[in-house]
Amino acid sequence: MKSGFRYFCFICASLLATQVFAADMSGWSDKTVCRLVKSGGNSDVNDEAIPRDLECAASITSIKSYRSTNPSAVNRGIFGKAKRSLNKSPHGYTVISDPTTNAPTKLVEVFEVRPGDCYANPGVNGWDDCEHDRERSELTENNSGPNRHGSEFWYGWSIYFPENYINIYPTKTALGQFHQKDADPIWMFDNASRSGGYRVVGSVNLLKTKQKLISEEDLRGQWHKIEVHAKWSRSDTGVFQVWVNGDLKVDYKGKTMTAQETLFKYGVYRSYMVNYKAENKTSEVPAQTVYFSNVKKGHTRENLVAQ
Questions:
Q1: pLDDT: which is higher, 212 or 7
Q2: Hey, which of 106, 146, 216, 272 would disulfide with 197, CB 3.0 to 4.6 Å?
């Protein structure tokens, strides 16, 4: 009788644990997360403990060999959780231990796009990258406060281009964008010129503002810290400022949006593969890999500091 009762309790506890681990743990206390880690936990609990840099995370399989495909494995401040956009491949997005050893965080996000990495959103009116000659692996902000007219936020990230990163111009490679809801992107960070490098492109009333942020010579093999201060406005009261490694590169004042809302997306997004193929007389565009670290959104610049 007692053994049957114990078995019943074990089954109930197991079912309860399954429900607990399936929950959103972002609001849980460090103490609660560590208690679950020490009691055996699962990959979801571990993914919550490691980016918080909790002491109990030391009991998890060595962080030096950490690997996950869960976007929630990193802390993005008030960005909250992010979701993958138009890419389902297992190689397209991973969170790994910093292979460079000098990123601002222990874990880095790796975006990789290979030839043929195009997908479509479900539904009759869903966007299809394959039909529009696009390939991508991006994350989209999901649960943060909306970037609407009159709002003001700080955004930050560090980006790393490996030594074998290839500039595929005249195909365009976007590496971050403020995409307007139900409208075109308004600000894009890209590697999309023959001279290479990393630049920001703003589009307001069809007038393009282009500013080189990092030269081609300085692009690869090192981390670059990007900070953005934006006052979102459909009038001339807007502000868009960009710092690179602490130096102010863009100090724009004026209209910063034309729609009701913008969403931040980052990763690797390439357009018009046909251009590279035609210029280089090839059937494929080379794969590209880029690392991101400490992607954050906050109300102040201090909110962008790596935890």
A1: 212
A2: 216
